[in-house]
Amino acid sequence: MADTGSTPELRQSPAVLNSFRVDSGVHLNRAHAAVYSCAILSLVYHHALSLRRSPTFLISLALALSDLVFAFMWVLSQALRWRPVRGQEFPERLAEAVDRKDWPGLDVFVCTADPHKEPPMGVVNNVLSTMALDYPAGKLSVYVSDDGGAQVTLFALVEAARFAGSWLPFCRERGLVDRCPAIYLRSDGGSSCPEGIKMMYQTMKEKVENVAERGWVRDEDMPDQAFGEWTPGFTRQEHPSIIQVLLDSSKDVDVTGHVLPNLVYVSREKNKAYRHNFKAGALNALVRVSGAMSNAPVILTLDCDMYCNDPRAAQRALCYMLDPALAPRLAYVQFPQRFQGLDENDIYANEHKRLSQVHPTGMNGLRGPMYLGTGCFFARRSLYGRPSSQCSPVYPNDANEHVDDGLTAEGLAFSETALKRARQVTSCTFEHGTKWGSKIGFRYGTIVEDFYTGYHLHCEGWKSIFCHPQRPAFLGEMPVNLDDVLGQVKRWCIGFLEVAFSKYCPLTYGTRKASFPMGMCYSIISFWGMWCFPISAYSILPQMALAHHIPLFPKGFGPWFWLYAYLFLAANAQDLVEFLVAGGTLRRWWNDQRMWMIRGVTTHLFGVVEFSLKQMGLPAVGFNLTSKVMEAEQSMRYKRGVFDFGVESPFFVSLGVVGLVNSSCFLVGLARTLRQGGVEDMFLQLFLSGFITINCWPIYEAMFLRSDSGRMPRRVSAISVLLTGALHIAAYFLLET
């Protein structure tokens, strides 16, 4: 069913639905950029002068190249600061502009893959909060993609569909803002919740968790034969397409007689002989299935571990998508990625404030923010072609089955014909020989399909909008142990590098197709892994020279000293101001800059190595889910602001080496400087080593002071000590002989 992508007609005197303003600090940013550029050029000149007479040429050369990488990344970041724009939407005026009955249909896509790492009750709460959106129920459809083909997930959704009949009218009648059952029942308002609702939710939760623990569904648990597709040969990697319509708005109503939204379970066909393209493949299957059924002009993508925190989120998106000045070229409206239960000080920088809030605001003044993978409302037609494209070539269909506003005729959306067509388009052979994944739908070719898809849409001429209301529209779970945090970022880093070193490199392709500033914005993310070179170099080399009393930087308080001081202080001051303006705190900023250094010597370093091995044809990285299951001890440590190092991870070996090198070199260097003199010569190296040592305090605690299960494993500590000793021995032979 082709999607017209039509926009409802506005009334004669449409209300103003949105407004934009350029950030008030834009001129100060530009002035600072001019001064800082001169300072960078002066630094390059200083390196050119000092390299020729350096006693340690290779170390000085490495630091000079590191400074060039710093300069390169700083230049790219200026595109984000050139014209940051903040938008404001007015959902209360939406009814003045468009009748509710004329709002476009909305299809919600929720993706899950593994019930062991993504608990089914999380999916249930996601679905219930989304179905409870303040939106016409007859125009709302929720599609859940289960790439693991798990009985448990379908069972959980069947239970959710039953509970929705009571939960949705309860939310509507009481005007609840917290419409995620788990969150509402834990809140102060939950104490006044009727016992009947509480009992229904608790019963559902116990049934789902019991089945999840058992791992399969008994016949007595599911008498309606919904699980007939699970035959003895059914596996995660080999199974047929399964599509179950759990709620149909044309016939299902809640306990008050109101229409319920559509709810559909989808598990696409899997076969080891065909590539399934991970999450992008699952999303494309949902695009086609929904096209065969509800075919709504607007699509919302959500991760399974997120829930809707603002029932008017869809209305906020419509304030942009129904604006006739924006709609013709508007591909999507992106909300920031926010998380519930963040530690007060966000010790792991899980908020990724720059990536999900600061950067999108900067890109909002250009062609718009990148796609963050969740909390994003798409115009369906943007997934089928360029803004000038008039048709949506999904697959052959009967034109007479299409009706206004993208929805199918009553009773047809989930007819046997539509279900048969939906099963056809989820077969593992359907995409063969088509443009799916290359020109149509979510794009393949990298494990960061979200970033890659948004990038291609911008290159095709589409625009996007960043919508950042005061109340978070969506909230999700985040990892609470350091190894999971770093593993997730390493996967992103590898994916970004896949884009950076492809024929679609943002520095070449993006600057030509999207715009020069947009190419720079995408480049700073694509080349994220490059941070490993300067951060690793500055974490080891000056410290080793310090231990052997070899000066590498200008004398303290001399003319060139002030250049280094300005570059360091100005960059950090600007970073701090941006962080605070985005709603951060000083303590969170400190933890964020510490995690930036930690990522530099772990995720970025390992990501670059793994990507390089992959390019050489050696064993490459696979797609690994980040566990959304919280262990009680890990959760408690996180809430207390204590780092969790409780697994044997190569990341921690790298951190241990950096921490030990800096502390040992600082102590040895300080002692030699006090004994031999030359404090001014060694001042900057002492400062750098001391600064990193202070940041490494959680590492020292985990290695030597803690005894809980979150301490660093003894084997990891021992390896770190041995490698640090080896580095000291190597430095001795290189610098003293």
TrEMBL record:
Membrane-traversing stretches: 57-76, 521-541, 561-584, 651-670, 682-700, 716-735
KW Electron transport (keyword) present: no
GO BP annotations, alphabetical order: cell wall organization; cellulose biosynthetic process; plant-type cell wall organization or biogenesis
Binding site for UDP-alpha-D-glucose: K117, E118, D147
Chief site of localization: membrane
Enzyme active site: D147, D450
Bilayer topology: Multi-pass membrane protein
A molecular function GO annotation: cellulose synthase (UDP-forming) activity
Lineage top rank: taxon: Eukaryota
Signal peptide positions (record): none
GO cellular component terms given for this protein: endomembrane system; membrane
Keyword Membrane found: yes
Keywords of the record: Cell wall biogenesis/degradation, Glycosyltransferase, Membrane, Transferase, Transmembrane, Transmembrane helix
Compartment list: Endomembrane system
One of the Pfam families matching this protein, by short name: Cellulose_synt
Residues binding Mn(2+): K279, D303
Official protein name in the record: Cellulose synthase-like protein G3
